[in-house]
User: Fold this.
Amino acid sequence: GLAALLLGRKYITESKAPKALRLDLVGVLLVTAALLLLIYPLTRGRELDWPLWGHLMMAASPVVFGVLVAYERYKTKKDGSPLVELSLFRVKSFAAGIAVQLTFGVVLGIFFLVWTLYMQIGLGWTALKAGLTGVPFSIAVSMAAGMSVQLLVPRFGRKVLQAGALTMVAGILLYFFAAGRYGAGISPWQMIPALVVMGLGMGLIVAPLTDAVLSEVPKEHAGSASGLINTTGQMGNAIGLGLVSVVFFGVIDDRGPARVPADVADAFTDAFRNSLGWAAVVLGAIFLVMFALPARPKQHLEGGADDDAAAPVEKEPALAG
Assistant:
């Protein structure tokens, strides 16, 4: 963080909006209420035995989102300072990218929580052992992310992101079979091949995804688009965490009370494998949605490059796809 502050002061150029915008407090309240109505009952539903008020809250969430859309249209006409720039969703690549960001966030929200519960509660590992088991995954993500942006995306375009989705599916399926084969006796070493494959796939997605989503967004709406990308990613994570009660703990509840440690391990292994199956299905859907992304996403130049330098890139015919 300190390094980022010091280097940022030197290398990041200042920018300024052509006109001052007003904070959309009503929009903030509406989007917060809509997200709360959706995520809170998902998170608390299982432990409260899915009360009626939880279902009513989830049913009300799309209604509030509808009110948000109507208000943002009004705010755009009134002073041009909406919280959400709705015109962005008319850009096909942006709309598709937001869908990818949301669903990918769901996958990550599900996987990382159930993975931790599986290792520490189901297998009885310490936090340190579980954490160290994830190191190969992190290294693989970092390596693939660096290669994807610098080497692969300029040459192969969106195919890199699609390859990342399929690679993650392959890693998930490998983990699914390893967990089933070794059961409670599985070791970190037996997890590493699956984790490395998953990490490589994730790295191919996370690094170039932002460029793919923003590639056709008008420059004047870049701030709003960036905020929507971050918000939808966090929203996806939150929804994924809420769905853990369904795809993970639902399996454990169906097995009944565990009486011995072996029962706990078996129940958590089954629940973990069920969650992996759902994650693989969602990643398959993500692969299909990625066809709506630009064939060759424009990579945004760093270091304050001027518009003239970027102009030849914008005129490449490949960007029309």
Q: What stands out?
A: Residues 301-321 have pLDDT under 50 and may be disordered. The radius of gyration is 22 Å.
